[in-house]
Inverse folding.
C-alpha cells in the first residue's frame, strides 16, 4: 500500500518562503517521474515541478527561478523549496509519484492528501 504524506504548508506573507516535504511509504518504484502539483479554488490541478527519471528537473514557467524541487532517496522524501512567494501561489499543494510525464497530472499514479499554502 503506497502512502504519500505532505507537510510544511502554512500561511506566509508575500516574499516569504516555505519548504514542503513529501514522505513516501510502501513505494519502491524507481525510474519514474516524481512531482509537485497545486490547485487553487475553482482551478484545475497545475503541475509545477518534477524530477525526471535521469535526475534532471522540470518547472512550470510560473515558478521557475523561485521554486526548487529535490529528493532524499535514503529518507524516501521529496521536497519543494518555495521562495519569493506570491499571492497567486496560494493553493493546495500535492506531491505525486509513479509518473510517466513531468507536469501532467493524469500521468501520475500515486498522490498525497495535500498541504495548504496561503500567501497574503
Amino acid at each position: 500500500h503506497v502512502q504519500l504524506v505532505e507537510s510544511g504548508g502554512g500561511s506566509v506573507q508575500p516574499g516569504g518562503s516555505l519548504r514542503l516535504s513529501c514522505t513516501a511509504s510502501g513505494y519502491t518504484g524507481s525510474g519514474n517521474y516524481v512531482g509537485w502539483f497545486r490547485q487553487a479554488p475553482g482551478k484545475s490541478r497545475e503541475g509545477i515541478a518534477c524530477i525526471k527519471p535521469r535526475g534532471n528537473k522540470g518547472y512550470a514557467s510560473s515558478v521557475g527561478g523561485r521554486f526548487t524541487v529535490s529528493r532524499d532517496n535514503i529518507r524516501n522524501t521529496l521536497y519543494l523549496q518555495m521562495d519569493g512567494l506570491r499571492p497567486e501561489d496560494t493553493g493546495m499543494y500535492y506531491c505525486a509519484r509513479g509518473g510517466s510525464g513531468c507536469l501532467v497530472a493524469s500521468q501520475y499514479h500515486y498522490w498525497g492528501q495535500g498541504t495548504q499554502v496561503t500567501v497574503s
